[in-house]
Amino acid sequence: xxxxxxxxxxxxxxxxxxxxxxxxxxxxxxxxxxxxxxxxxxxxxxxxxxxxxxxxxxxxxxxxxxxxxxxxxxxxxxxxxxxxxxxxxxxxxxxxxxxxxxxxxxxxxxxxxxxxxxxxxxxxxxxxxxxxxxxxxxxxxxxxxxxxxxxxxxxxxxxxxxxxxxxxxxxxxxxxxxxxxxxxxxxxxxxxxxxxxxxxxxxxxxxxxxxxxxxxxxxxxx
Length: 222
Fold this sequence. Notes:
The protein has helices at residues 44-48, 51-69, 89-94, 97-107, 120-126, 133-157, 185-195, and strands at residues 3-9, 27-31, 34-40, 75-83, 110-118, 164-169, 173-181, 202-209. The chain is of the alpha+beta class and 222 residues long. The longest helix is centred in the middle third of the chain and has 25 residues, at 133-157.
């Protein structure tokens, strides 16, 4: 029977999750120094074959991750990662076993928050008429300066709690990812509130999430 993989964690604790994708039972097993979570999927085509079914399955997948995250730190597999059978789990994990263990040790006891910055005037500019190369460069320099200012402020107010920051530029926004200790969640949120707003920028916070951005992409990990 096909199985869908959710994540790997440290071997202990074992987290019980009531139901997963397609309402299938969520199983776990300790293998090669990690614990892997999966569900056996009786009919993968019915569960994942149509867009609506895939959307529902993705929501259930993330619900499982949130359930695990409430108790320990998971490193997710890309969705959907399917194996022919759960008997193939050890073979699937073997080639990356050292990476899994190293990554789990590095992010142990941590969770990830995401902050997305958007600038209303940038959104307006993107929908406006084409501009010259000089004007384009000027706008990008201004944008880089504003990103640096927001980043400096975020790092300053959260310096006592964030273990690591990562960032990613996108077309119309900028994303920051904060790796924080599990017991630092309240302090992190309080620090952000103390910073107040920044003129001309909208910041949207989401999380906590599994610390996927702090794991070097290899194999099925992202």
